[in-house]
Amino acid sequence: MLVDMELEVMEPDTDLNGHMNHVQYIYYLEQARHTWYKGIGMPVKKLIEEDRIGTVVVHLETDFKKEARLGDKLIIHTTLAHVGTKSFTLQQEIINEQKETIAEASIISVMFDLSARKAIPVCQEIRDAQKSSN
Questions:
Q1: H or E element, residue 115
Q2: What digits encode the pLDDT tens for the residues 86-125?
Q3: Per residue in 18-55, pLDDT tens?
Q4: Could you tell me the pTM of the whole model?
Q5: Of 75, 60, 64, which Cα lies nearest the Cα of 104?
């Protein structure tokens, strides 16, 4: 399932070079993942407070292709690429208004029991999202 998030590069997100700092890319990708969770019917607040489960990033790989500058309007595409037993992989792409790829990321996360502090099987909402992607 593909979920999009739109945003604009703000002044605090830029560095002395006049472009978006690499740390902000990671932050924006995280925001887009939360939007993806909500889009598949898996709101993070409910997971944490009621179900006592969460997700933990165990691997993040990012390729920066082009700079983003102050005022640029960006779209982050997030899609489920793979589901394993306890982990899943999301692919993300940040594009600008000209449809140019700004950055690409691959994030592997594990489902995590917040009480037991250990990995658990991937939840049904993510498995269902995999089915809707095929």
A1: none
A2: 999 999 999 999 999 999 999 999 999 999 999 999 998 8
A3: 899 999 999 999 999 999 999 998 877 877 888 899 99
A4: 0.90
A5: 64
- CA 49 to each of CA 52, 61, 115: distance values in angstroms, whole numbers, following the listed order: 6, 29, 11
Q: Which domain holds residue 23?
A: 3-133
Q: Is the dihedral of CA 37, 38, 42, 48 positive or negative?
A: positive
Best CA proximity match to 103, nearest among 59, 64, 72, 60: 64
Spatial neighbors of 55 by CB under 8 A, at least 6 apart, are: 37, 109, 110, 111, 112
Using a 10 angstrom Cβ sphere, with 0-12 exposed, 13-18 middle and 19 or more buried, the burial of residue 10 is exposed
Confidence of residue 134 (pLDDT cuts 50, 70, 90): low
Q: Indicate the SS3 state at residue 96.
A: coil
**Count of domains in the chain?**
1
List the CATH number of the domain containing 129.
Answer: 3.10.129.10
Cα angle value 73/79/82 (rounded, 5°): 150
Rounded distance between C-alpha atoms, residue 126 and residue 123, angstroms: 6
